[in-house]
Amino acid sequence: MASSRSIFGRSRNGPTESPTTEQYLKNNNKIAEITLLHKQVQEHPKYAETVEESVTKIRDRNLRQAKDRNEKLLKAEQSTSIFGARKAQSKNKAESTELTDELAVLEYELKSTRERLLSLDQSSSLRSFDFEHGRIEYDNSQSGIRGGYALILQATFFPKERTTASSVVAMKLMSQNTSGLEERLKRATKEARIWEQLQHSNVAEFFYTIPMPETLLDQIVVVSPWSDGCGTGNATASSFLLDPANIEATPMIIQGIIAGLEYMHDPTTKPAVFHGDLKGNNILIFGTREAPIPRITDFGLSKMEAPDSSAPSVVIGAAHWAAPELFGTGDSSTVISAQSDVWSLGATIFELVTGRPLFHDKQFIAVVCFYVLETRRHREQEVADYLMCLPDPVRQVVHRIFVEDIAVRPTATDVSIMWETLRTQVQIHDHSWRSLMTTVQAPHFLHNRVTNPDGGRVLSNGEWATWMTNQREQRG
């Protein structure tokens, strides 16, 4: 006869062993992790001279007591009957929470000790910190890559579940110079909230946001994939395409950027996302040199199309790529939008094709003054003069993009169609991108990286600059 369960938690035929609880398993795993960490810390050659023996004994005792308490909690939960269950469960839960908190304190102490020992090791600049999903290691001596709001460092990520596996990642530290911790945390959280919704082959993958790891006090860390530019070391689209060996990848890379932006603007599967700072240096290159894959990154100025979205102006970012309306010209909105992103896309195409940004001969303040003080007619004429530096098929596409009236400015989808048509034409008529670039006439060919890679005769005393100065004088 099969045994049956009684309300007292025992079978009528005798006692049975209840299954282990989920909280017991969590505590047991955490105790095992902390025990291993305690052992590893003691193996450091400077441990004995840094940590008092009494502290080690206290930690040993605390670990033993934690294990005993966890076993007692398991037995208490298994023996709880329906009668008085609520009171007993409440007591067990309180004791379990207390144990979890004590384990967290012990783990923090051990990690702090480990970091202190690492900092004493003058022979190595390697630093590390643990967080929910694993461990990050990085070289504290590297200078990194500085942007407007952050410092980017190369790091190694060790997943929690597979400590022997690792991957190279980008560790983005939100700048401490521009705002306090609360503001930086808000900015990092906002960037992560937007970024983590994006899943596309031409948008860089988002990993984690980590507030205040112990080795980086008063810091915020955003973790994402690291790019080495297909092994070239030129991680961004700007630097990758400056290498003459990669010239034929130009149309493919631009098509990928357009596809990524088109996906971001599409509201059918997610809220539409507006980047706000699109430019060559915010495009990372993955894949291979033969088939590079561009991925849009750096969503620090981005916003989602939602009622509560913040509305930053991209002018605080990169003025050379910014749309006219963001400078307060005309009646248009001064906040980032799909239309302003498309203008920045046009400026990015100009940059990647010629190797130099639009208005490259103007400083930041000169670009601002140009948009604020010049008439619309003069602005359009000046932009048209810059576009003479592009091969005719490319110039036609970018000219369609550089329309100040946002109501008639094309969408990213429109640009995608135009660019795909251009690529087909180039394959039929010019056969190579390099051949297409050689069709640019003097003095405009001096502006592009293929026919004038070292930039000679472009600066203030050059032929192209002289021609541009004459054009401006004629406009008055």
From TrEMBL:
Transferase keyword on record: yes
Pfam families named among the record's database cross-references: Pkinase
Listed PROSITE patterns: PROTEIN_KINASE_DOM, PROTEIN_KINASE_ST
Name of the molecule in the record: Kinase-like protein
Top-rank taxon: Eukaryota
Annotated spans, Disordered: 1-22
UniProt feature, compositional bias: Polar residues: 13-22
Keywords associated with the record: Kinase, Transferase
GO MF annotations, alphabetized: ATP binding; protein serine/threonine kinase activity
Domain Protein kinase: 138-434
UniProt organism field: Sistotremastrum suecicum HHB10207 ss-3
